[in-house]
C-alpha cells in the first residue's frame, strides 16, 4: 500500500519500523491498533452470529498473528489469494468471496477495519435497530469537517424526512452536489440483496471498478434499491489509499480531540416567556407574539460520568422532610411533580428521536442537574424551559447540529416531550419562543402546520419596547387546567370558538404592526381586547377569580393587562399616569431624566430622594411639573397577595439582559 511504502522510505526514521504493517494494524487513537477498536465494537454475540475478516495473501500472516493475540477465530480469516496491488480482486469481489465461501445467507454488516474513527464509543446496537426498522439497505455517513474535499469521498444526498439516500456520488468533482455528507465503508445489506453482488461483478470485470463506493452508486442510482442513510456524529479518516502525512495528521487530530477535557460541564439556560398577543390560539391554528424575559430562567448542567445520573433538585424534588407536617404542607402547595420527570422524559425522547432520525449516538454517560427560579404553576413556561435547556445540553454533548435538529423541529420536540410523555396540556408558542429566543411572531396556520409540520416563526426587533410589568399569584393553581374544554369545542367546529381563534390571529397581526410602529396606545388597547376575547371563550369560571382580580386591579390603575400564559399571572402595559397616585416633589432633590410619554415634550424634573430609597420605578409627566409614582401599582398587587416585577426582556442578539423602565 501507499502508506507502507511511505513508512519504509520515511527519512526521519520515526516510522520505518511500521514498514510492511497493514494499515489496520497501525497504532490508532489511544495507542490501540485501528483494528482493535473495530473488533471490540462488533465482538458481541448477542448482535452478530459470526465475524469474518477478509485480507490478501501478502498480509495474511500479520492478521493471523493479530487474531491469535486478540481471541479472534482464525478460521474466520478469509484469504483472497492476491499478493500485489495490480493483482488485487477489488473490495466487492472480496466481499462476495467471503459470502460465497462461508455460505452466508443472512443480513450482513460490512465495515472497513482500517478506518480511523474520531469517536470510538458509538452504539452499534442502535445502528442495527435502525437498519431493521427500514425496508432496505443502510449506509453510514458523517458530516465532513472543514478542509475535507468531497472529491475524496462517496457523497450522499439524503431525504430529511424518509432518510432514504436519493443520490450517491463516488468522489464527485466540485460543484456536482452541495451535500457534505460523506459515506464510509460501513454498510448493512439485506439477505435478498446479496445476489446483486455477483451481478455487479459481471458488469465490472476490472478490479479498479470493483470498489464498494461504485457498488453503492450502482445500487442507489441505477438499480433504485431502497438504501437509507444513518448519521454518526463523528468523523472517519484513512479511507482507502493514503500516505504517511495523512496518517500522522489525522492521528494527531483525533488524539488531541480525545484528550480534550471530558469532564468540563456543559451548562445551558432557557428563559421564561410572556405571551404578548394571540395566546392561547397557538394550539388552534392561530397566531401569537411572545417574548423571552431575563427575570426568570431554568438552567441545566451536564457533566460526563461513568453512569447516567439524574440529580433531584433539593427544593423542587424533595426526598427529605423536617416532619410529616412539613411533607404535607410542601406536597399541598407544590404537588408531586417536580423537574426530575422533565429531565428523564427529555432524555428518553432524545434517544428515540435520534434512533428514528438515523443518528447513532456515542455510548457516553452523563450526570444531569437543574436549577430554576421560574415561579411554578403561573403560566410562564417553566416546564418547557427545563426541557429546552436539557435538550441544548444533550445536543452539545452528542454533537447534534442545527442541521440534525432544526429550530422549528426542536420546538415540536419539546412540545412532544410534554404532551406525549408527560401528558401536560400545552401549545407550541412557548417552545418556539424559547428555542428562537427574543421577541417572536408566530403563525400556526393550518396549511403551514399540515404542509411543513410547523408554522412560520419570525424574530422581531427588540431595540425599543414599551415598559411592561408582570404580576403573578403567590398561591396559584395548576396552570394546565385553565384550558378547560375549549379544544374539544374547537375540534367540534363550534362557531364561537372557531371565530374567536380567528380573531386572536387578527389581533396578533395588529399588534405586530403596533410594535413595529411603536404605537404603545394601540398595543395596550389590543392587550385588553385579547383578554376580553379570551374571557368570552373560556368563561369567568374557567379563568378563575385570581386571574380576574389581577386584571381588574390593573385596570383600576389605568393599565392594560392580559394573561401571558395559561393562568396565574398577568402582564401589563401602563401608559396613563393620571390613574396613578400623585405624590410631592422638591427642587432640592436629585435630577432625573426620562423618556416622555407619547405626545409629550421632554423635560428634566427633580425626584425626591425618599422615592429613590424605595427602589420603585417612576412614571413622569411633564404637565405642571408633576410626577406620579408607579410604586402604588406594585404596592396594590403586593397587598393583594401577588408578586410584582418589571419585565426585563431577554435579547439573544446582544447576549445581554436588556433593561427597561
Automatic annotation (TrEMBL):
<protein>
    <submittedName>
        <fullName>GLAK2 glucuronokinase</fullName>
    </submittedName>
</protein>
<dbReference type="InterPro" id="IPR014721">
    <property type="entry name" value="Ribsml_uS5_D2-typ_fold_subgr"/>
</dbReference>
<keyword id="KW-0547">Nucleotide-binding</keyword>
<dbReference type="InterPro" id="IPR005835">
    <property type="entry name" value="NTP_transferase_dom"/>
</dbReference>
<feature type="domain" description="GHMP kinase N-terminal">
    <location>
        <begin position="355"/>
        <end position="438"/>
    </location>
</feature>
<dbReference type="InterPro" id="IPR013750">
    <property type="entry name" value="GHMP_kinase_C_dom"/>
</dbReference>
<dbReference type="InterPro" id="IPR029044">
    <property type="entry name" value="Nucleotide-diphossugar_trans"/>
</dbReference>
<dbReference type="InterPro" id="IPR053034">
    <property type="entry name" value="Glucuronokinase-like"/>
</dbReference>
<feature type="domain" description="GHMP kinase C-terminal">
    <location>
        <begin position="514"/>
        <end position="579"/>
    </location>
</feature>
<dbReference type="GO" id="GO:0047940">
    <property type="term" value="F:glucuronokinase activity"/>
</dbReference>
<dbReference type="GO" id="GO:0005524">
    <property type="term" value="F:ATP binding"/>
</dbReference>
<keyword id="KW-0067">ATP-binding</keyword>
<dbReference type="Pfam" id="PF00483">
    <property type="entry name" value="NTP_transferase"/>
</dbReference>
<dbReference type="Pfam" id="PF00288">
    <property type="entry name" value="GHMP_kinases_N"/>
</dbReference>
<dbReference type="InterPro" id="IPR036554">
    <property type="entry name" value="GHMP_kinase_C_sf"/>
</dbReference>
<dbReference type="Pfam" id="PF08544">
    <property type="entry name" value="GHMP_kinases_C"/>
</dbReference>
<dbReference type="InterPro" id="IPR006204">
    <property type="entry name" value="GHMP_kinase_N_dom"/>
</dbReference>
<dbReference type="InterPro" id="IPR020568">
    <property type="entry name" value="Ribosomal_Su5_D2-typ_SF"/>
</dbReference>
<feature type="domain" description="Nucleotidyl transferase">
    <location>
        <begin position="20"/>
        <end position="199"/>
    </location>
</feature>
Amino acid at each position: 500500500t501507499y502508506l507502507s511504502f511511505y513508512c519504509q522510505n520515511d527519512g526521519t526514521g520515526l516510522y520505518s519500523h511500521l514498514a510492511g504493517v497493514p494499515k489496520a494494524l497501525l497504532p490508532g487513537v489511544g495507542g490501540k491498533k485501528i483494528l482493535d477498536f473495530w473488533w471490540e465494537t462488533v465482538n458481541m454475540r448477542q448482535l452478530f452470529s459470526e465475524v469474518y475478516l477478509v485480507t490478501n495473501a501478502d498480509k495474511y500472516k500479520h492478521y493471523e498473528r493479530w487474531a491469535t493475540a486478540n481471541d479472534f477465530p482464525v478460521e474466520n480469516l478469509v484469504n483472497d489469494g492476491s499478493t500485489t496491488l495490480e493483482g488485487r480482486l477489488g473490495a466487492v469481489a472480496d466481499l462476495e468471496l467471503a459470502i460465497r465461501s462461508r455460505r452466508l445467507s443472512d443480513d450482513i454488516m460490512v465495515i472497513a477495519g482500517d478506518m480511523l474513527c474520531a469517536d470510538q464509543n458509538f452504539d452499534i446496537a442502535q445502528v442495527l435497530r435502525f437498519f431493521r426498522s427500514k425496508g432496505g439497505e443502510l449506509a453510514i455517513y458523517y458530516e465532513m469537517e472543514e478542509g475535507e474535499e468531497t472529491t475524496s469521498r462517496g457523497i450522499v444526498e439524503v431525504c430529511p424526512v424518509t432518510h432514504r439516500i436519493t443520490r450517491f456520488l463516488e468522489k464527485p468533482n466540485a460543484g456536482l452536489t452541495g451535500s457534505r455528507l460523506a459515506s464510509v465503508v460501513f454498510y448493512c445489506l439485506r439477505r435478498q440483496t446479496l445476489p446483486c453482488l455477483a451481478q455487479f461483478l459481471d458488469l465490472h470485470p476490472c478490479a479498479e471498478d470493483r470498489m464498494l463506493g461504485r457498488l453503492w452508486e450502482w445500487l442507489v442510482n441505477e438499480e433504485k434499491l431502497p438504501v437509507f442513510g444513518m448519521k454518526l456524529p463523528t468523523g472517519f479518516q484513512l479511507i482507502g489509499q493514503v500516505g504517511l502525512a495523512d496518517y500522522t495528521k489525522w492521528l494527531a487530530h483525533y488524539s488531541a480531540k480525545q484528550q480534550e477535557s471530558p469532564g468540563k460541564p456543559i451548562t445551558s439556560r432557557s428563559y421564561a416567556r410572556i405571551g404578548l398577543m394571540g395566546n392561547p390560539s397557538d394550539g388552534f391554528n392561530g397566531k401569537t407574539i411572545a417574548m423571552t424575559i431575563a427575570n426568570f430562567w431554568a438552567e441545566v448542567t451536564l457533566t460526563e460520568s461513568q453512569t447516567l445520573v439524574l440529580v433531584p433538585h433539593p427544593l423542587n424534588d424533595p426526598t427529605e422532610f423536617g416532619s410529616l407536617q412539613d411533607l404535607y404542607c410542601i406536597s399541598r402547595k407544590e404537588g408531586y411533580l417536580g423537574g426530575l420527570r422533565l429531565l428523564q422524559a427529555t432524555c428518553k425522547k432524545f434517544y428515540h428521536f435520534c434512533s428514528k432520525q438515523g443518528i447513532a449516538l456515542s455510548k457516553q454517560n452523563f450526570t444531569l442537574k437543574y436549577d430554576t427560579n421560574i415561579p411554578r404553576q403561573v403560566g410562564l413556561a417553566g416546564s418547557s424551559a427545563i426541557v429546552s435547556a436539557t435538550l441544548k445540553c444533550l445536543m452539545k454533548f452528542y454533537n447534534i447540529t442545527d442541521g440534525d435538529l432544526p429550530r422549528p423541529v426542536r420546538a415540536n420536540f419539546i412540545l412532544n416531550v410534554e404532551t406525549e410523555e408527560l401528558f401536560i396540556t400545552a401549545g407550541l408558542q412557548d417552545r418556539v419562543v424559547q428555542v428562537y429566543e427574543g421577541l417572536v411572531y408566530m403563525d400556526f396556520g393550518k396549511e403551514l402546520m399540515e404542509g411543513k409540520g410547523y408554522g412560520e416563526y419570525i424574530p422581531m426587533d427588540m431595540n425599543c419596547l414599551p415598559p411592561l410589568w408582570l404580576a403573578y399569584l403567590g398561591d396559584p393553581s395548576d396552570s394546565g387546567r385553565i384550558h378547560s374544554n375549549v379544544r374539544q369545542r374547537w375540534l367540534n367546529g363550534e362557531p364561537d370558538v372557531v371565530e374567536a381563534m380567528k380573531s386572536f390571529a387578527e389581533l396578533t397581526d395588529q399588534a405586530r404592526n403596533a410594535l413595529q410602529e411603536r404605537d404603545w396606545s394601540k398595543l395596550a388597547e389590543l392587550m385588553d381586547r385579547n383578554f376580553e376575547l379570551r374571557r368570552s371563550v373560556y368563561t369567568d369560571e374557567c379563568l378563575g377569580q385570581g386571574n380576574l382580580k389581577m386584571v381588574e386591579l390593573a385596570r383600576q390603575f389605568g393599565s392594560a393587562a392580559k394573561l401571558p400564559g395559561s393562568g396565574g399571572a398577568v402582564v401589563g402595559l401602563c401608559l396613563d399616569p393620571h390613574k396613578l397616585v400623585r405624590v410631592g416633589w422638591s427642587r432640592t432633590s436629585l435630577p432625573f431624566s426620562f423618556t416622555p410619554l407619547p405626545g409629550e415634550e421632554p423635560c428634566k424634573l427633580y425626584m425626591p430622594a425618599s422615592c429613590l430609597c424605595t427602589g420603585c420605578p417612576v412614571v413622569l409627566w411633564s404637565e405642571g411639573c408633576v410626577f406620579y409614582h408607579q410604586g402604588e401599582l406594585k404596592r396594590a398587587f403586593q397587598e393583594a397577595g401577588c408578586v410584582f416585577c418589571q419585565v426585563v426582556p431577554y435579547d439573544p442578539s446582544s447576549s445581554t439582559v436588556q433593561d427597561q423602565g
